[in-house]
Design a protein that fits this description.
- By secondary structure, this protein is mostly helical.
- It has 4 helices and no strands.
- The chain has one domain.
- It is about 75% helix and about 0% strand.
- The longest helix is centred in the N-terminal third of the chain and has 16 residues.
- The chain is elongated, with a radius of gyration of 16 Å.
- The termini are far apart.
- About 0% of the residues are buried.
Protein backbone atom coordinates (compact mmCIF):
# COMPACT_ATOMS: atom_id res chain seq x y z
CA UNK A 1 0.00 0.00 0.00
CA UNK A 2 2.83 2.40 0.85
CA UNK A 3 4.52 1.89 -2.51
CA UNK A 4 1.25 2.28 -4.37
CA UNK A 5 0.52 5.56 -2.58
CA UNK A 6 4.04 6.87 -3.17
CA UNK A 7 3.73 6.08 -6.88
CA UNK A 8 0.30 7.66 -7.09
CA UNK A 9 1.58 10.83 -5.42
CA UNK A 10 4.62 11.04 -7.68
CA UNK A 11 2.72 10.35 -10.91
CA UNK A 12 0.06 12.89 -10.02
CA UNK A 13 2.76 15.45 -9.25
CA UNK A 14 4.56 14.58 -12.52
CA UNK A 15 1.33 15.02 -14.47
CA UNK A 16 0.92 18.52 -12.99
CA UNK A 17 4.52 19.79 -12.88
CA UNK A 18 6.41 17.66 -15.39
CA UNK A 19 10.13 17.17 -14.84
CA UNK A 20 10.13 19.48 -11.82
CA UNK A 21 8.51 16.56 -9.99
CA UNK A 22 11.56 14.42 -10.84
CA UNK A 23 13.90 17.08 -9.46
CA UNK A 24 11.88 17.23 -6.25
CA UNK A 25 11.87 13.43 -5.92
CA UNK A 26 15.65 13.26 -6.38
CA UNK A 27 16.21 16.01 -3.82
CA UNK A 28 13.93 14.26 -1.32
CA UNK A 29 15.65 10.90 -1.89
CA UNK A 30 19.08 12.47 -1.35
CA UNK A 31 17.95 13.50 2.16
CA UNK A 32 16.71 10.03 3.09
CA UNK A 33 18.46 8.47 6.11
CA UNK A 34 18.35 5.15 4.19
CA UNK A 35 19.98 6.54 1.07
CA UNK A 36 18.77 6.66 -2.50
CA UNK A 37 17.04 3.53 -3.76
CA UNK A 38 19.05 1.65 -6.36
CA UNK A 39 17.47 -0.79 -8.82
CA UNK A 40 20.82 -2.52 -9.18
CA UNK A 41 21.15 -3.04 -5.45
CA UNK A 42 17.52 -4.01 -4.87
CA UNK A 43 17.45 -6.48 -7.78
CA UNK A 44 20.99 -7.81 -7.10
CA UNK A 45 22.36 -6.68 -10.43
CA UNK A 46 25.54 -8.77 -10.11
CA UNK A 47 23.43 -11.95 -9.78
CA UNK A 48 21.33 -10.98 -12.79
CA UNK A 49 24.43 -10.34 -14.90
CA UNK A 50 25.84 -13.70 -13.85
CA UNK A 51 22.63 -15.44 -14.90
CA UNK A 52 22.64 -13.58 -18.22
CA UNK A 53 26.21 -14.72 -18.92
CA UNK A 54 25.25 -18.32 -18.12
CA UNK A 55 21.96 -18.55 -19.99
CA UNK A 56 21.86 -15.96 -22.76
CA UNK A 57 23.60 -16.67 -26.05
CA UNK A 58 26.46 -14.42 -27.12
Amino acid sequence: MAGLQANWDFLSDFQQRGTLALDALRAQAAQSPWGVASNGRILDEARLRSMEEMYLPD
